[in-house]
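Work package 3, deliverable 3.1, input record:
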Amino acid sequence: MRLRSVVWIAAALSCAVPQTIAAQDMSFDLNEAEAAEAEQPAEGEKKPEGEAAAEGEATAGADAEGGDVLAELTADTGKKDEKEEELGPREQEIAEEIYAVQRMYVLRNGRFELAPSLAMTVNDQYVSHPALAIGLNYWVTNVLAVGASFLWYQGVESESDLNFSVRRSTRLAVPITEYQLGAHLNFTYVPIYGKFSMFNDSIFQWDSYLVGGVGMMRTRPVAVVDPAVRSFDFDWRVAFNAGIGLRVFVTKYLTVFGEFRDYIYLEKLENLEVSLGADREDEATWIDENATLTNNMTVHLGVTLFFPFGFEYRYPK
Amino acid sequence: MGKTVTTTAIRLVIASAALLTGLALGPVAPQAHAQDLQVEGPLAGAPAVIGLRIYREMRFQIQLQGTMTLNDEFSRTILTGGQLMFHPTDWLGIGVWGGFGIVHIDTALTDQVGERGQTNEVNVLSLPRPGGFTDQIGIIQWMAAPQIQFIPLRGKLGIFEKLFIDTDFYILGGVGFVGIEERKDVTAGQFSTCRSRGDLADQIACLEPTQGERDTRTAIAPTFGAGISLYMGDWVAMTFEWRAMPFAWNTSGTDESGNSRGDFPDDQITSDDQLAHFNHMISLGFAFYLPTEPGLSHMDEDE
């Protein structure tokens, strides 16, 4: 009788110890998992009644191996309810280290960034130049990237009603152009970063960046002065670009971004003068001799994908 | 044997029920697990920031603003004004915004029409004399809007890892009232009288005075926008704001209504010639808060 009492007490203590460890020192790490396994009773060892109710899920798993589904389900439910009642709010019993200096949320250096986006013109009342765009950056440091971007315009552009209205009311033709594509090399620099809290509940990271570079655009005038005779082919223009953007991190590899970028180039416009006689058919007279400095101010909205998805911090936490 | 069959059947039923329950709850379980991980620990249930400066709650905001309209076809307006807001909470404000147009700048298109526009029998009402086009274009005189501000985001930013600034992001909405000055209506009777003068030169001479005749009205429009505040101190902030106010008006003072292959021109200038415009603008402002001391969040909970 005395021996049985000792065994019961020992069993109760052996149940209580792993429970305490699991609740107070759980750190979700490998050592913890190994410790839990070590505390499981040896196979074939008879367990006293009540042990199943006090142990963690590992014991139930061992029972399941025996094929007793009913016992497993019953034991599992009872354990869970009892455990929750005994432990109370789990949050109070988990040790979590707090660091004086937190790590940066995302490291960019050495990673690639793929950025598909939609682009819209914001400063041209006469014709809109929306585009499908994609960019690829390589981050040399955490704040500096080199990259390339490509924009496709043709087929999605549209002329505004203003042109028609002005022509109809004032007999004045406004020369306009059509874009086909743009390809640019650029640097990106991140001078501003920050974080926002939403209703003081959740926090997300963002940064603001400067972008600039040089590239080529393929454009052509649209014949509005003498459309019966004139037609134009696409031609290459050297274009500079400069802009500013805002990137919000959804995860450590996915962001949404908005960017304002000005594509600056010298445009060849249709000649407003129409030559008479045979010269009217001369293509050399169709283009205005003076090139016009053009600012195609564009807003990009899109997402970026950093890869590789994961990264390692240089220093331990 | 019969007992074994019954037990096996019970096991199958229970196992099937467990499997179905598992499948049904499967998509939920990982999410619940993730949320458990987020809320556990000593910071479980704690606000994102403790001791956050509460810049807006129960404070008035007096803001001085400069505003410039964007993408204007014929005339760009620079307004000076401001707004007066009261914030019952840190995320909600109510008040009024407004400004007066102090500078009107003609666009390049307006200059081009003045220099190169042509008048003939068809458009003599729209453009009696190209040189007078500047006088007939519409301008914005003033704007005002009772509005509500919603401030969902509050944070800080670091510039060159040296300068750190408290900031918030807000969106706004309200009802806008816009004082507009447009070319005065020209009735079909007036035009008919001028048309009966004979040749084009006489018609131009008859209609030219109408180019400079002005009329004013108040347009009512929805307004919405977004902005960011950069707090330079406990009671002062710099703001950048974008705002739209779509409404219809006759920006060119020309005869616009009608289809070119049908009833155009209708030979009169009326409200039918007011075309819908998006009318958006950007503002730069300095906001001052009263009382001058901001609050601090959750400090009572720590004590």
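The first strand of chain B starts at residue 53 and ends at 54.
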